[in-house]
């Protein structure tokens, strides 16, 4: 049963018309308001977080029937679950009685949720199960309006679960489009083409969510923002050219590039900088505590095959960014969650290898231990640099009279940014071409009039 939402979109549409989006988003620059205006942020919660496919979680986080995790779709608290029949659903975490959240845990297993306030309980299909002392009510509780609202469209791509409230959105596969190719390559490197999501580094910064998305493919900042990390990785002569050393010198002369792939998605590919041989990726892995011990013991056990195994623990040199809130980078899944116009959660989920077919000869524990070490590095030593910059941008953008933010690197230089026959736009790794393209898509979405709906069990 689909339910059209009349009140909020009507208000949002009239607000959207108050802005001249072409003035705010120009070819080479954007206005500070798109990062600072609470009313624009509120519009984004329907025009972007609601109207497009938003990443919610991974199937390995809810492997069994009745498993759930609590996540967000924009500001909406969501219970992402596998119901008792195995169907994946995204329920609004909101009691239909007086609106409190039904579930306050991060994860668990439940056939039903009992509201902590007055005890109404709901099956994990969203259907109202029971109400305490129903003889005090004259209504018919079989009316679907008492069942929990849920996101009408929830689809997975190879384990990654996305959801939208927009019946007019394209199918998920069409939305992802060309970005599925790097996603497939990222997955197919793993045994069985699968990963399992592990625990996460949970970070929060005082800045707009788009500052993180602007940065997600930014190859221009690395040598400056992450100087301490680059220096740490390259301090010892025998580990020179490791870690992110491909950013040394002039990064545009290094074998890497960025590609804009439509619908706001983009991809920075640093793989051409890596030698194509077993162990090529491990050879450039930065220093991590205990890595020599693991590598030595794997080499003793597996001989030359150890190199391939070690590559699985290494950080894949890609940034695969799916608009608006999902990135695959290294071996992480990074998720952006807006909290307010000037506050954002950034969660870095680790991923583990699952060796269902036993191709790793029993080394899966070691690989995942080592992989955890490699995954601890960037969120702790690199992401903090980025978050500090995002917070300082938000502070800088408080200068009301200095209105513009430039993203014109690479613009107007003949032959530098190329559009292929497939529509994919490629540019040097330091260019801001992907920013200009995704923000055009953002503008298109902000001008649109999405009609969002929820669903309830009949
Ligand atoms: S708010 Fe949930 S039972 Fe009252
Ligand atoms: Fe960075």
Describe this structure in words.
This protein is α+β, with helices and mostly antiparallel strands and 458 residues long. It folds into 2 domains: 53-157, 3-layer Sandwich (Rieske Iron-sulfur Protein), CATH 2.102.10.10; 178-445, Naphthalene 1,2-dioxygenase Alpha Subunit, Chain A, domain 1 (Alpha-Beta Complex), CATH 3.90.380. 28% of the residues lie in helices and 24% in strands. It has helices spanning 7-16, 21-24, 33-36, 38-47, 172-176, 180-188, 209-215, 222-225, 227-233, 291-302, 305-313, 364-396, 433-447, and strands at 2-4, 29-31, 54-58, 67-73, 76-82, 88-92, 107-109, 112-114, 121-123, 128-130, 153-157, 160-164, 195-205, 257-260, 266-269, 318-322, 326-329, 332-340, 343-353, 404-406, 418-419, 425-428, 453-455. The strands form 6 sheets. It has a 9-stranded antiparallel β-sheet, sandwiched between helices. Strands 6-5-4-7 form a 4-stranded antiparallel β-sheet, with no helix packed on it. Strands 3-12-11 form a 3-stranded antiparallel β-sheet, with no helix packed on it. It is globular. The protein binds FE2/S2 (inorganic) cluster and fe (ii) ion. Fe (ii) ion is lined by residues 215, 221, 225-226, 382, 386.
Provide a quick synopsis of the model.
With 458 residues, this protein is an alpha+beta fold. The chain is 28% helix and 24% strand. The strands form six sheets. It has a nine-stranded antiparallel beta sheet with strand order 13-19-18-17-16-15-14-22-21, with helices on both faces.
